[in-house]
Design brief:
The protein is of the alpha+beta class. The chain is 30% helix and 30% strand. It folds into two domains: 2-18 and 201-240, no CATH class; 42-193, Alpha-Beta Plaits, CATH 3.30.70. It has six helices and twelve strands. The protein is globular and about 55 Å long.
Length: 244
């Protein structure tokens, strides 16, 4: 059996694979052809997992983020323009707050307008509103100073404080599934992460096997089993750090 130990936030995921994965080098042409159909299901699953891993790791390492929504004041149906606008915003954000980290996912409104949902770490939490459900308890400085709106420069920014709940990862990953069904999003990434964003810790091989043996004495939170044509039998076991 081949073992992969992955830790993100308070979650530990141990994968047991019957056949060791072989490293296959794929040669790609420099010129990419546009994708006109739907995205591959495995690419969507990979993007969702990456979102879950990264957000969980960032919350554990960087603390509570701001939950923001970036919307366009004018026409918002050009995916290439929206993608470039988001890239410029992330550059401006880092220039204003050098330690800032960000993660964004696009969404298409029922009216066909693109907007972005995301998390901002290492930025002043005072910018965000404090909410209890849908009710605003207190307004943040962003409503007066428009700090993020000026950096965005394309329209409106809604910012709210969060408590660093692990549910933030699931909340954002659901937009990846929604966006995957939009052909216009083929011109952009479903998950845009800033450089240096915290990642999950991964260990493979014998050390992962030893860690799996130690965690086997704990009660698992979830166990999944399945089969793969290339890897054989696969077993994934999840543990929570605060649960013995």
């Amino acid at each position: 059996m081949y073992f992969i130990f992955r830790m993100y936030g308070e979650t530990v995921e141990i994968t047991e694979i019957e056949k060791e994965p072989k490293k296959v080098r794929v040669y790609r042409s420099r010129k990419r052809n546009p994708i006109h159909g739907l995205r591959r299901p495995d690419n969507i699953r990979r993007a969702r997992k990456t979102c879950l891993w990264c957000v969980s790791a960032a919350v554990a390492e960087l603390g509570c983020p701001l939950l923001v929504t970036l919307t366009f004041a004018g026409d918002a149906s050009d995916a290439s323009y929206a993608n470039d606008s988001l890239r410029v915003f992330q550059v401006r954000l880092r220039a204003q707050f050098p330690d800032a980290q960000s993660l964004f996912v696009p969404e298409l409104s029922p009216r066909g307008r693109i907007h972005f949902h995301g998390l901002l770490f290492n930025v002043p939490l005072s910018l965000g509103d404090t909410r209890n459900g849908k009710r605003v308890v207190s307004y943040g400085d962003e409503r007066k100073l428009r700090t993020l709106a000026e950096l965005w420069g394309e329209g409106y920014v809604d910012a709210r404080k969060t408590d660093g709940s692990p549910r933030l990862a699931s909340y954002l990953s659901k937009y990846i599934t929604k966006g995957a069904g939009q052909v216009m999003f083929n011109a952009m990434r479903l998950l845009r992460i800033s450089r240096g964003f915290p990642r999950e810790d991964v260990v493979r091989g014998d050390l992962a096997k030893e860690l799996a043996r130690r965690y086997a004495m704990r009660k698992p939170a979830r166990v999944w089993k399945g089969d793969n044509i290339f890897l054989g039998h696969i077993k994934k076991t999840m543990y929570y750090q605060n649960v013995k």
